[in-house]
Amino acid sequence: MLKKSTFREIKTSLARYLAIFAIVALGVGFFSGLRDCKESMVSTARRYLDRTEFYDYQILSSYGADDDSVALAEEWDGVRAAEGSIQIDVMGRSGDGDSRALKCISIPERINTLSVVEGRLPENVNECVVDSYSITDAGYNVGDTIEITDENSKDKRKQFKVKSFEIVGTVNTPVYLDYQRGSTDIGNGRLDAFFFVDKEAFDVDYYTNLYVKLTGDEPSLTEEHEDKLKAREDSMKDLAEQVREKRRETAQKEAQDELDEKKQEYEDGLAEYESEKADAEKQFSDAEKQIRNAQAQINEGRSRAEKGIEDATSALNDLEPALVEVNDGIKTLKSERKKAESGLAQAKEGKKEAEEGKAKLEDGIAGLEQAAQLDPDNAEYYAGQIEGLKTELAGVDQKLAEVNATIKEIKTGIKTIDKKLGEAEEGKTRIEDGIAKANEGISAAQSGLAELDRQQKKLNSSRSQLKSERAKAEEEFAKAKKELDDAKEELDEAQQKIDDMETGNSYAISRKENAGYSSFDSNSSIVSNISKIFPLFFFLIAALVCMTTMTRMVDEQRTQIGILKALGYSNAQIVGKYMFYSGSAAFLGAVLGFFAGCKVFPVVIWNAYTMMYGFSDTVDYIINWKLGLGVLAVSLLCSMGATWVSIAADFRVPPAELIRPKTPRAGKRILLERITPLWNRISFLYKVSIRNIFRDKKRFLMMVIGVSGCTALLIAGIGIRATISKVADYQFDEISLYDITVLFSKNMNENRQKDFLKELREETDIPDENVRFLHRDELTMVMGDKATDITCVATEAEGFDEFINLHNGDQHIDYPGPGEIVIVRKTNHDYGLNVGDVVTLREDYHETQVKVVGVADNYVYDSIYMSPETYREGFGKDPDLKAAFINFEEGTEEETIRNVSAAAAGYKYTAAAQTNIDVRENVSKMMKSLNSIVYVVILSAALLAFIVLYNLTNINITERIREIATIKVLGFYQLEVSQYVFRENLFLTAVAAVAGIPMGDWLLKFVIDNIVLSMIYFEPRHGPYDIPIAVALTFVFAFMVNIAMQKRLRDVSMTESLKSVE
Amino acid sequence: MNDMNDYVVFDHVRKVYHVGEVDIEALADATFSVAKGELAIVVGESGAGKTTLLNILGGMDTLTSGKVLLDGKEISSLSMKELTRYRRYDIGFVFQFYNLVQNLTALENVSLATQICKDPLDPAETLKAVGLGERMYNFPGQLSGGEQQRVAIARALAKNPKLLLCDEPTGALDYNTGKQILQLLQDQAHNSGATVIIITHNKAITPMGDRVISVRSGRVQDVKINEHPVPVSEIEW
Prior knowledge:
The complex is a heterodimer of chains A (1062) and B (237). The relative contact order of chain A is 0.10. By secondary structure, chain A is an alpha+beta fold. In chain A, strands 12, 13, 14, 17, 18, 19, 20, 21 and 22 form a nine-stranded mixed beta sheet that branches. Chain A has a six-stranded mixed β-barrel with strand order 3-4-9-6-8-7. Among the domains of chain A are: 239-500, Helix Hairpins (Orthogonal Bundle), CATH 1.10.287.2610; 731-916, no CATH class. Helix content of chain A is 64%, strand content 13%. Chain B has one domain (4-234): P-loop containing nucleotide triphosphate hydrolases (Rossmann fold), CATH 3.40.50.300. In chain B, α4 (123-129) crosses α5. Chain B is globular. The chains are: A alpha+beta (1062), B alpha/beta (237).
């Protein structure tokens, strides 16, 4: 029967039953859901990390690694697997898009395996898969092609066999768990994305990174795993050293071989040079000799010709007068002959005359003789004439003989002349021949000379050609020689380098230093810290609401309890009924709340975090049974305990009294009324409200606790957001004023500083004082029995304010003097270190005691500051300058800063350069995703406020339904009725909101204090409007509840006023 | 036209409640009137419909058909808001269980009503008039039932209403106290000229009324006018 009554009770008061159910469900849901978040997130990440075999340690050495290193690592004690990875940063471009700084990584097979998001893995060297997170940012799509652009250095391009890759898919890698892609020394210094290609696509014979998985199956993100990492750290360092040492030997040998090869090349080159030079010399000298010979020949020919001409000329000179002589001789001879001939002709004439005279005489004789004969008579006369003729004849005969002799003589003369003439003619011919010959010789010699001239000319041109060729050749040889000398110098330098090859550095970097992994770790602990206190608050409120509801119910049912008791039901039976009522509601609520909360909250939080972590769209549904049973027990305890307490009070009075209506609580004057002047001023509609508020202390308290809790949650929620999201702004606007941090691999002495500045100034003009070279290194700080590694900055005090503004609140902190240090707030917070404390600093094997003289505000990173003297005296050496801060004038364009950063990164001794823009972006982005938690908190605060206000208002209305009905009958307008009831609510809300401010402040501090991140220190800060906003929101919720309750009030039937008091 | 006899008029009033699919006729056909300054008593058994009648007259409920008039103003056609104004200015209500606000003193309880009236009486004076001059600063919890009911009456009277409606005003009181309350109400009608309607199941008190309206099964069975109402002190029950 009682059971029946119980179920009927539930049915008739379903609203109340559901209210308990709902508040328990909500309380439990929030509590266990938020509590569960970290575990869900961690479990999701853990599965991912373990499935993809995320590395435990990364071994880096100055000399890279190779297959031997991998083998060495695999044999190493405590190592389960090792794999080498090639990672090269290149500028890549797809289509005609902008070129991007990309990290090209060889596709891993065993460690850090890829999970394909879209498409497939590459099947050949011409294919690649890209970063699924940054693919759209980088402007790539599956099907596009990534080209290794020409802007990459030749050496870099040489490292790739394939220079164009088709994108066949997108992947996630555990190495980049979150959005951070890191920095690089190419482009603007920031890596845009990564892509994976087949190992064969590279043209390198070493690995840049060596990943190691440790033995043991401790799941990721557990303390056991962290312990393991810590325990194996030294062993890994040893491994790294060995890898480095082996690699160094190999590298030294390889380098030596390479150098030897180069040296050989140089020697060959030198030999070739020399032989070529000798050849050339010989050729040139041969040519010169030839020219010389030719010249000699020409000269000889010329002198011969000239002599010939001279001889001929002198012969001519002899011959010509001879010719004239001969001709004269001939002429003389000829005229002699002519004379002789004319003498002959005379002689012949004489002869003819003589012969004619003879013939005439003979004829005269023969005519006389004949006449004598015929005139012998004058015979004597005749005879005497004959005789006289005869004598005359004899005279003629004599004469004739004489003429003949003359003729003969003449003729001999002529003959002699002719002979002489012939001789002369002959001589003449001979002379003439000689002249002709001489002339011929001259002209021949002259043409020979012309030829010689021509040859000379030719010879001259070949001579000058030879000369210029020689000069050219000499120049070239000089150049070659210089090149060779340079090469020699380089080789010597290289040899020196190899000879001096440093031990180099080796690092064993645990996964905890992986940006994505550690940010996940931090973020999940922030979630866990925030979810530690908030849900508890919620849970408390739920218990409170549950309690008041049950108390109210028992109160209402007082008469019924009396009747049941009067009827003879045992206390246990009656208690059982109400216990079952509240217990079942709480049980159902807790179960639903637990399972739903564990399901919903991690999903909500995870969705916010997928902005940062793209590796899983879904979050694990973790059921923490221990937590579940705990909350169930507490829920039951609260609801049933409240019921028990309420009923127990009723059991103390006799049933008869229970059956009678409970005497209404008497009206009572409150303290305020004693202040008559004030009280009299209050309209008694307000008096009613005020009296009501203070009359029911329990309700007052509940309302104030509940609503102030809501205000506190809002203040804390908004405060967390302000604190966290502004951390970067605070740090970089107020403290770290510099823009770029550069770390160097070598101590920056004055020359290097100059070189470095020169390189920077190629980008933009930076004044000297804007670049601060300083000492920045890790050392160990010992505080009593605690020790920590901390970054130590040692630099001159002067002008340092421009780089880092050390201050504590509004108070400026002077840069520490000798024997003093300034610490930052995180150290103060984490280790309780304060001004005036003395700590020990340890560097290598030196220790020094210093005094803390200031605690500086600082949010991102932590360090201590000291003067160089402190360092020098403390550690017995000069602080090396292996870091620099670069500061820009306010308002310098981001691009300029980035370019300078890239230029700084390009300097040969730069190990890393990072802009604060990037740090700031990273921090901001990380912090932004925390907003989701804040929204959850704000939403839950709102819900909480709503539930508390609704519940209490509801109870208030229920309790005063008669009063409300009465004032309605009295003719109060709807609005007046509402005000009559809600005035109390608003008043209570106001009180609660004010009470909530310090609570919120405390809550914020508590939560923030509990967020311990390795990199970041949070200091609880309220934004200027945070508190007003939180209070205003509380009022908004109160108003919303009032509005929601209006209908309830309107529905209060006036006939209630007519009912009898129960 | 305002006939003094027709100060309150119920004209064929019918009220049907819809409960689920069942129609319950709370008032079938109620017709009566009350004159100004009269003390009228509506009497009937439980379930006769007298509470419905009270609700309608008190402006707390609407009617299904018919007409209700007070001082010539038709109430049956008023809107909810007008009904509130009607209750506010025209009606004084005395409840069976007093319905005092526990948190307010006697004086304040009266003031609660006068606060919202146009032409209220002085609360303190009214309390004095009902014989509570000494106790006006007491909380209801500190008063006896009769005193509480006096406060309630004072609260109703102080509004200076056109009509004083009393729902079983003696229901929660002992005999003597009840008589004192009834006397107070009769005095109000006869001496102060208030129009008072008392709703009761107690037939014994009917002689005190100027007019007795008997209700049965949702109908006005009988309206009897007492030319000479009996003083309360003479009534016994």
